[in-house]
Amino acid sequence: MKKFIAILLGTAVLCGTAAAQNCSQFVNSVNGKKLTYINQDAKGNPQMTAVYTSTKKDASTISTHAEISDKNGKLMGTGDSEMICDGNAIKVDMKSFIPASSMKQYSDMKISGEAKYLTYPSNMQTGQTLDDGSVTIEMNGNGSPMTLQMDIVNRKVEQAETISTNAGSFDCFKISYEATTKVKIAGIGIPFHMKITEWYAPKLGRFVKSETYTKGGKLMGVMVLDSVK
Fold it and tell me: Which parts of the sequence belong to the DUF3108 domain (predicted)?
C-alpha cells in the first residue's frame, strides 16, 4: 500500500512539473512578441490595424497591450488584457475580443473592466464543444462613458487546418461561435448578433484569422495576422 501511495504521489508531482514546463514554454515563446493584424471589410479593403504587444508578467501570465489604428494610421484606442496558462488550457482575457466594429466607433477609447476569460484547452480536438464566455466592459469614448456587454456562446471546434498569411504558416483549429454585443449609453442599448469563425493557433494563444458574419450569414469583415516580430 505504501508503495502504491508513493507511486501516486510521484505521478502527481510529475504531472504538475510537466504542466509547469508547458506553461513556461508557452509564456517564454510569447513573451516580447508583437502581433500585427489587419482588419478588412467584406470586399477585402483595409479598415484598421491592431497591434498586440505581449510581455511576461509571471511564470504563467502574459500581459498584452493593444493599439488600434484606422486605415490612415491614426490611433483610435488602446487596451490591456492578459493570457493565463494553467497547464490544461490557455485562458484569454475577454477584453481582447471586443469587435473591431465597436472599436471603430469610438476614438480615444480606454478599456477597463473585470477580467473574465475565454478558455482554449491544451488538448483541443475536432468536434469538441468549448466553454461559453460573458463579460461587461466599461469604456470611455470622446468623454462619454458607456458599457459594452458581450456574450460568446455555442463555441465548437470544427477541424484542424494550416493557415498561411503574410506572417507565415500556422497549425490552427477552426472554431465557430456566436457573439452578442450591446453597447449601452445612459442605460440604453440595442443587442447586435454576429456569427464568427476563427482559426486559433495554440503556439500563439491567439487566432491567426477571424471572419465575422451577420446573424443571417453575410460576411462583414475579416481580421488577419499580418506580421509577428
Answer: 31-225
